[in-house]
Amino acid sequence: MSELKEWIDKAERFIHQQREMFGDFAVPHHQSQDLQEPEVTADDKAADNREQTTEIKDALTLGTVQNLDELKILCESEKALRTDLEGTNLVFGTGNPDADLMIIGEAPGENEDKQGEPFVGAAGQLLDKIMKAIEFDRNEIYIANILKHRPPNNRDPKPEERARSLPFLLKQIEIIDPKLILCVGRVSATTLLDRDDSLKNMRQKFHDFHGRELMVTYHPAALLRNPSWKRPTWEDVQLLRKRYDELGGKP
User: What pTM was estimated for this model as a whole?
Assistant: First the structure.
């Protein structure tokens, strides 16, 4: 419609010039329909949205994404993030995008794959209870995994899968910018800290991680299999809460 308006403006200027040169005259009027904006259907809008999304995908790289929405769009089309299990859904992350505490697990399971959200099964319910015990609601923190697609049979992520996924997680951490990171499980901790060590040796201390502080504890799924690890986990998260308050975390 902008081109049509430009054409009408030119025609009006021409008529004005002719009147000044030759005097007033009438332009024959033919019956016609009023100019109207073309009707935009729901299909047209959907097509426009798909086209815009495709353009955004083509333009995005890890170096250009500015926020979580753009990063998610990039991850949705990124083949490097997929495992050798066909037909899985992206499990990007969930929670407060401005969280001062970020929890990072290993990989999505079956329930997470179905719902597209991390920690929603039995282990996720236990994680919610643990966080509630130290006065955190799920919507106050941010939760993600090293892998963003489910591996077959819930196996541990392979080294090459972790290596391919890590840059995307690091970008996610950079955008959220938490004060504290809690790694649940040995795979998560060794991947982020880039060290081959036991969970026992990594617990009960704060590790430097790109200018942030990182703590390690047991994965909730491990607690379901080994209830004896609940006590040391409780000690870990109490220490986490204390440090969070010292750093001025909100809330």
Answer: 0.78
